[in-house]
Amino acid sequence: MHMGWMKWDDNFLNHPKFVRLERRAPSRGVHLFVGLVSYCKQQLTDGRVPRDMIDRVNGPPAGRWRADAMRALVEVGLVEVLEGGDLMVHGFLDWQASRRKIVGARTLAKADPTQESDGTQTGARRDSDGTQHGASTDSELIKKGDTATLRAVASRARAQILDRDGDVDSDPPANPPPSSVRLAPAVAKKPTSTSSAAIGKRNRTSRARTQCPADLKPTETTAELAWRLGFTDAQLESEAGEFIDYWRGTGRLMADWQATLRARLRVRADRLALARRKPRDGQWAAYQQQLRDAKQPVKNPAKPPAGFDQNVRSLFG
C-alpha cells in the first residue's frame, strides 16, 4: 500500500484567493478545497475531478453549505469548470507531483526494495532543504562491488532523471552495469525539458482565456440545461445578467464562459430548490422557433403604390 503526501505552502491561507474564499464561504470553502486536492492526489488525476465524482469528494455536507463552498471556489479562481462539468483544481501540478512521476517512482521502488515510492533510499534522512543523511555515496556503493548496491545506484540515477524530466524509464535490468561509467549513456538518452515534444505538450494543454463578453447569451446546450434544472426563460435571463455583471466587475479571465455559466446555474438551482424537468423534445424546439419568428419585425414584401403615404395622411388630416 502506497501512502501519498500533499505539499502545501505554510502561508497559503494568506493568499488573496483564500482571503476572498474565507469571506464568501468561511471554513467550508477551505474544507472542500482540501477535499478536492486530496481526491486528485489519491486518484492520480493531475488536478481533474470528473463530474460524476464531485459529490464523493470529502468536504461540507451536501446541500446549501456545499453548494456555497463550490460556488465560492469557482468565483475566486481556485477551481475551474471544464466543458462537460468536470472540475480542474487551478495550479495543481505547480505543487503536487504528476501521475507520471508518481507511477514512475513506484515502479522503481518495486524493482529495488532500497528505494521508497518517492525515489529516496531506505534509511536515509532528508532535511527540509532536500539534503539526505545516512545513505552511502555512489562511489562508496560501487566500491563494495555487490549486485544489490549496484542496483541501488542504477535506480537512484533513474530517479534523478525522473525528477528532472518527469518521464518514466523502463524497468531496470536484472544485471546492472558494474560501474558508474556505464550509467552515463542512459542519462544522455533522456530528452530534456526543452525538447520539441515537451514544448508541443505544453502548447496542446494551454487554453486561451478571455474576459466575460458583455453580450454573453446562453447557447442551446446551456439553455437546455437551464430548462432541465427548472429555470424559466425569465429566470435564465436574470441569472445570465447577474453572471455578466459579476465577472466583468472582477475582470477575471476564463477559458470557457458557457461552462462557467452552467456551473453557476447548477449551484443556483440547488440553492433555490427548483423542480427538475425532463429534457426538451422536438415539440419544444419547434415552439421556441415559433417564438423567435414572432419576435422578428414584420416586413411587407410588396411596395406601396405611388402617393400611398399622402392618401393615408389625407384620411386623418
Overview of this structure, please?
- It is a single chain.
- The chain has 317 residues and is mainly α.
- The protein has three domains: 12-95, Arc Repressor Mutant, subunit A (Orthogonal Bundle), CATH 1.10.10; 99-124 and 131-201, no CATH class; 210-295, no CATH class.
- It is built from 14 helices and seven strands.
- It is elongated.
- The termini are far apart.
- Mean pLDDT is 75; it is low at 119-126 and 164-189.
- For the largest beta sheet, what order do the strands appear in spatially? 1-3-2
Instruction: Determine Rg (CA atoms, Å).
Output: 30 Å
End-to-end CA span: 96 Å
Counting DSSP E segments of at least 2 residues, the number of strands comes to: 7
Largest sheet descriptor: 3 strands, antiparallel
Question: What is the succession of H and E elements?
Answer: HHEHEEHHEEHHHHEHHEHHH
Helix content: 40-55%
Which term fits the overall shape?
Answer: elongated
Low-confidence stretches: 119-126, 164-189
Helical region count?
Answer: 14
Question: Keywords for this structure?
Answer:
single chain; mainly alpha; Arc Repressor Mutant, subunit A; three-stranded antiparallel beta sheet; two-stranded antiparallel ribbon; 7 strands; elongated
What topology emerges from the helices and strands here?
Layout: H1 16-24, H2 28-43, E1 48-49, H3 64-76, E2 79-81, E3 87-89, H4 92-95, H5 99-111, E4 125-126, E5 132-133, H6 138-144, H7 147-165, H8 184-189, H9 196-205, E6 210-211, H10 220-229, H11 233-250, E7 253-254, H12 257-272, H13 282-295, H14 308-315
Antiparallel strand pairs: 1-3, 2-3, 4-5, 6-7
